[in-house]
Amino acid sequence: MTDNLKYLEALINSDSKVISELYLESLPKIKKFVLQNKGAPQDAEDVFQKALIQIAVRYKKNPFSVTSSFHAFLFTACKNLWRRELNKSSRWVTKDILEEQLYEKNEDALALLEQERWELFQAALDLSSDSCKSILKLFFKKISYSQMVVDLGYSSETVARQRVFKCKKKLIELVKNSSSFNALKEL
């Protein structure tokens, strides 16, 4: 059994030993992220717990596989939830209890949808050629075209721009041709 499957199964079966491992290995990184982004330790613990529950419910409803490491997957889920929390707190200064409950349900659904979109993007990126993966990773890190020329050995910035354009186009095609894309599009 892979580590990813081990963690997913542990969440479903409430395996406290494996879940404790997750807390020990992943929670410190989540805390660091939340603290660096206007949060408190309790916020990090809440987001972490919410992400674990969200992943477990989603996996129980529709089993999926994690292509990256489970810790990276969990970190992304937590990061997305925390960003939603920050957006929510900046939008709502005074709240009616009913409005808050409706908003939270909607936010949870949006966070889940965002996570599914991220997974679709990651899956499409994984299907890309190695050269496209390399250049797109640099592009997404906002590395300059001149630096891409140096890092990847292209002859000019024009060649780097053309390669980024072609790889982005191919990535978009991979996303749009995915069965998951059509399901997400309908939501």
Automatic annotation (TrEMBL):
UniProt xrefs under Gene3D superfamilies: 1.10.1740.10
Organism domain of life: Bacteria
Pfam families according to UniProt: Sigma70_r2
Keywords, comma-separated and alphabetical: DNA-binding, Sigma factor, Transcription, Transcription regulation
Keyword Transcription: yes
MF terms in GO: DNA binding; sigma factor activity
Lipoprotein as UniProt keyword: no
Domain RNA polymerase sigma-70 region intervals: 22-91
A biological process from GO: DNA-templated transcription initiation
PANTHER family reported for this sequence: RNA POLYMERASE ECF-TYPE SIGMA FACTO, RNA POLYMERASE SIGMA FACTOR HI_1459-RELATED
Protein name, entry field: RNA polymerase sigma factor (Sigma-70 family)
Natural source organism: Nonlabens xylanidelens
Taxon lineage: Bacteria, Pseudomonadati, Bacteroidota, Flavobacteriia, Flavobacteriales
